[in-house]
Design a protein that fits this description.
The chain has 196 residues and is mainly beta. The protein is 12% helix and 44% strand. Helix 1 crosses helix 2. The termini are far apart.
Length: 196
Amino acid sequence: MMKKKKILLMILSILFVAMPAFADKAIARLPETATLAAETADQAIYFDQLVPPSEDELAGVVSVWYKDKRTGKVCLLFSTTANAEPVWEKMTNGCAPVKLSNIAAADKAAFIPGADHLVVIEGCPDARNIWTYIVDLKKRTAKQLQATEGLLSIDAERRQLHLSAYRYHPEGGRYSVEKVFTYDGTFVSEKFLSEE
């Protein structure tokens, strides 16, 4: 039963990513079990847990929905893929493009001020690293950022995202750094934060 649900979910996810115009017409309302993840005055992001986390799949499967509050229009953006392919080695200048069908987890969301077509989606697929994505709602594209501990803050004036990542000391132990990215995902700088 679980495998059939996953296969159906993957097919739906591919359909909605490949044919956004169809998706907008096909989906008329949010699932009753969807919960609000982020909102502005005009729009909102909702998460719906389709498959709960398990020992095999720590993040489970979540569908991510968009609602235009001005029109009431709702559509499925994507569903997470617990076995999404890591893109750490493909990153250049702090990020790498990913398909919406290759987003590993979704636990948190935040709209980016001054760029309402962009939303940060974060999730922890492996009980260790927080994977952070910038999703472009207009283009239906995504980029994964090179950070492992999540979003710290958004600087709307400078149009920058501040995230945390960990590093390892050569002699053992971890420490955290604050990494700064532009709204398009380009790495700007990093500074030391704390020891563990």
